[in-house]
Amino acid sequence: MPNDKKSEPDKTGRPAVELVDVCKVFDTSATPPAYAVDHLSLKIASGEFFTFLGPSGCGKTTTLRMIAGFESPTAGKILLEGHDVSGLPAHMRNTNTVFQSYALFPHLSVEDNVAFGLAVKRVPRSERGDRVAAALDLVRMRHAAGRKPSELSGGQQQRIALARALVNEPSVLLLDEPFGALDLKLRREMQIEVKEMQRRLGITFIFVTHDQEEALTMSDRIAVMSTGVVRQIDDPVGIYERPTDRFTAGFIGDMNMLSATVLERQDGVVEVLAADTRLKLKTNAELPAGKDCTIAMRPEALTFMRDSADDAAFAGKVESAVYVGTDRLYNIRLQTGEAMTVRVRNSRADSVLRIGEKVSLFCPSSAIHLLSDQDKK
Amino acid sequence: MRNRRQNVITLLLLAPSLVMAILLLAIPLLVVIAYSFAGRDSYGGVVTGFTLESYVELFQPAYLPIFVNSLKIAAMSTAVCVLIGYPIAYFIAFRAGKHSGLLLALLLIPFWIDFMIRMSSWMVLMGRNGTINGALTGAGIIDEPIRMIGTYPAVMVGMLYAFLPTTVLPIYAALSGINRRLLEAADDLGAGPVEAFWRVTFPLSLPGVMAAMLFVFVPAMGVYAIPVLLGGGKSIILGNLIVQLFLDFRNIPLGAAVSVVMLVLSSVIIVFYMRMLRRLEEAHA
Ligand SMILES: Nc1ncnc2c1ncn2[C@@H]1O[C@H](COP(=O)(O)OP(=O)(O)O)[C@@H](O)[C@H]1O
Ligand SMILES: [Mg+2]
């Protein structure tokens, strides 16, 4: 097994993986071509836990399979530790994959499954035995060494699949929705365990999931994908708190979004009009006067007041209310017709609103996200 | 009550096929077994009774080579069929893509034509003045026609032709059932195509290969027409021994005894084989 290495992602050195303008079109005869992966460029640092997050069909698996070498890119380059591997088959790349379906060899024992990569590389038998034992220890499955995969539960098979990949000490480990088939409790356990394992081993993990919570809890950085395009790459805090893209804002957590128009721009401050309300917001984005954009606010960032005439507030009426234990959720219909959701702590004294009651919604300008509309999909 | 009634209904529904099976399979078999224990008068008539005469005669050294010969031909045919059938099955399962259905159909279509007609066509093809010799002499590749009919390779060609579909189908079924992710996993773990084949594809196709071998070996043991028509009937094997005993020598009890021994031999092989197959399948489950 790899020695325990210090875990700080090495963000200065050569990237573990680099994608340069990578495209994948499955049916090249179609016009226009349907891009499963559309001009993807990014760098993944050595030792990083990097996640591709996006809805089903957005191209995550295809991206991962191109890095592994199961699919070749229609255009673009893939570099592993600085070397162009675009033309190399999977068995000539120093990556290993944990498949969603586990793909354990049914005719081999657990031990032989884990030893497969070492046997193929003609690692001497004695060393092989030690490394297999260490890998099985790592996933706490040493006791099952002699069993057949069919005699194991899904979670146990998942562990064997991990051991089978990690025993080869790959420079990059690829995981495609590895916990997709596990029940929720086991899933949470495995998330913590795998994250901890990655921290200890210092191996670059590239992880694919459609589960935002999984992505947020495990990753160093997340690439949010939709329709073959990476919408935003940032650390979990950045993805959640500073979405720069309409898709990301809508995909991660709950978000109220309003169409807006830029009225005026001065020294990093823009004044926008949204739902008949003027707002002054700080931004670095390229937003000249007259341009359309979107403003986004989390339900918990909004507060309400009764009977306010402030013109920095959105006026509306309570349409429905939901009690969710610690909080209450209100759907507010704005005078201009848009719907907004507000989340209010029940501990607030006047948290209870009547249906039909008139309210004004406020959001601190620091919690309003200004998103450009250029890649609205 | 209800159960009893259901049993009766099941029995009634099964009755037509049961009657057929009894009439066409069980009774003839019993007749053959009964004949094998019967005696024989000097004119070739069957004398009903119980005697082990035929079996005693059968275990004379003279008959041993015939059994050995039959086993040899069956084993050789099995080897030839599997060696040639496996690559075909592999190609259809992995390389033919959307044409796989068509290829399987092409493999099976000739078998809608009567067996004897197809074997006669091979005689025409391989005859001294047959199509192949004609083409080869015509093209000036050979001066004298090659003798093909009556040779061992000709018998093997006939066997291959007869048993190829029964070889290819079970192997194809096993191969196409292999989860492609397993091959990707092998690739991912550093195995090139050849290594992945021997470590993953081949072991996983073994149940199909075993089934194919059984489907060739057992009928090949009793085959009659192919060695006679294409082999010139020179090497005596069980199939034509039985025919000779029944028709030429009119020794019906001895012919029946040979049949019974062959049946027992095949059954033993099948039972032994099925056990191995089951163990293999358990290992793969
Ligand atoms: N082998 C394939 N042949 C044709 N289309 C494919 C193939 N694999 C994936 N696709 C298409 O590419 C797109 C992206 O798929 P995929 O990468 O599997 O998405 P994800 O893993 O994000 O759910 C989808 O539209 C899918 O239908
Ligand atoms: Mg996928």
Protein traits:
heterodimer, A: 377 residues, alpha+beta, Rossmann fold, OB fold (Dihydrolipoamide Acetyltransferase, E2P), 2 domains, five-stranded antiparallel beta sheet, 20 strands, 22% helix, 33% strand, disordered N terminus, B: 285 residues, mainly alpha, MetI-like fold, two-stranded antiparallel ribbon, 2 strands, 75% helix, binds adenosine-5'-diphosphate, binds magnesium ion
General shape of chain B: globular
Strand content of chain B: under 5%
CATH superfamily of chain B: MetI-like
Number of domains of chain A: 2
> What kind of sheet is the major sheet of chain A?
6 strands, mixed
Helix content, binned percent of chain B = over 70%
Strand order of the largest sheet of chain A: 6-7-8-3-9-10
Number of strands of chain A: 20
Give the CATH H-level superfamily of the largest domain in chain A. P-loop containing nucleotide triphosphate hydrolases
How does this structure look, described?
The complex is a heterodimer of chains A (377) and B (285). Chain A has two domains: 15-246, P-loop containing nucleotide triphosphate hydrolases (Rossmann fold, 3-Layer(aba) Sandwich), CATH 3.40.50; 254-260 and 291-372, OB fold (Dihydrolipoamide Acetyltransferase, E2P), CATH 2.40.50. Chain A is 22% helix and 33% strand. Chain A has helices at 60-68, 110-120, 125-138, 154-166, 184-201, 212-218, 236-241, 246-251, and strands at residues 17-25, 35-44, 49-53, 75-80, 83-84, 95-98, 172-176, 204-209, 221-226, 229-234, 256-266, 269-274, 277-282, 292-297, 303-305, 314-324, 327-334, 339-345, 358-362, 369-372. The model of chain A is unreliable at 1-11 (pLDDT under 50). Chain B is mostly helical. Chain B has a single domain, classed as Orthogonal Bundle (MetI-like fold). Chain B has helices at residues 2-36, 53-58, 64-95, 100-108, 115-126, 131-138, 152-176, 180-188, 193-221, 225-229, 238-248, 252-284; strands at residues 39-40, 46-47. In chain B, a hairpin with a 5-residue loop joins strand 1 (39-40) and strand 2. The A-B interface holds A 68-70, 89-91, 95-97, 99, 101, 103-107, 116-117, 119-121, 148, 150, 164-165, 168 and B 179, 181-182, 184-192, 195-196, 199-200, 203-204, 283-285. The site of adenosine-5'-diphosphate has 10 residues of chain A, from helix 1. Magnesium ion is lined by residues 60-61 of chain A.
